[in-house]
Design brief:
Distance between the termini: 56 Å
Helix content: 10-25%
Low-confidence stretches: 1-35
Strand order of the largest sheet: 8-5-10-9
Number of helices: 4
Shape: globular
Largest sheet: 4 strands, mixed
Order of helices and strands: EEEEHEEEEHEEEHH
Mean pLDDT: 84
Structural class: alpha+beta
Length: 202
């Protein structure tokens, strides 16, 4: 088919139809219906290292707050950020929707399955590290992280896994920003939240 533009006829290029669904994630997201939440097999050590070497990782971090306004932090066992306090979180898998990832990550990191719809979005953040999970020299890690604030009305969590963190603690925002052993990328969440609150108040 052709259309006429300025006395000239130009071909109209027709694209084949595709079936898409839209998920609301703060920004528009389009995912083919045939692959949503059909997760691939877990990557082995070498495959995951290749992924870290060649591109960024997408992650969700959970800013879990208790009834006193304190935030849950864990002392990281593994690189990157080994030996520092950080909020719990995890990587989003290929073909995994954000809602499914949020449920999986919240359950694996806190023992409680939470829904993304009940959380408050706290922005997109970039994290750059000089090291990697395998401690392979010369390879850094790049995360693009979606942060969410989750209100948890108790001060007790019944199950806190030890695979990624050797210990946990509740900390007030002022403590977090002042502590030398809380990672700078973790502190940046609270600085951004405070800046947003100040801009709204102004």
């Amino acid at each position: 088919k052709f259309r006429r533009v300025n006395s000239l006829w130009h071909p109209i290029h027709l694209c084949p139809p595709h079936r898409y669904i839209t998920r609301s994630v703060g920004l528009h997201s389009f995912q083919p219906t045939s692959v949503v939440d059909e997760l691939p097999e877990p990557l082995d050590h070498q495959a995951f290292l290749a992924l870290v070497t060649r591109g960024p990782l997408i992650a969700i971090d959970l800013i879990v707050r208790n009834s006193r306004g304190e935030t849950l932090l864990g002392l990281r066992r593994n690189a990157p950020a080994r030996g520092t306090w950080f909020v719990p979180g995890g990587r989003v898998y290929k073909n995994e929707s954000l809602d499914a990832a949020f449920r999986r990550i919240s359950e694996s990191e806190t023992g409680i399955q939470m829904e993304r719809a009940t959380a408050r979005f706290a922005g997109v953040h970039e994290h750059f590290y000089d090291d990697n999970f395998a401690s392979r020299p010369g390879i850094g890690t790049h995360y693009i992280t979606l942060a969410y604030i989750v209100e948890y009305r108790s001060r007790e969590l019944l199950f806190l896994p030890q695979e990624q963190h050797s210990g946990y603690r509740w900390m007030a925002e002022r403590e977090i920003c002042a502590a030398c052993d809380v990672h700078a990328n973790c502190k940046a969440y609270f600085q951004a939240i405070r800046a947003d609150a100040n801009s709204v108040a102004a």
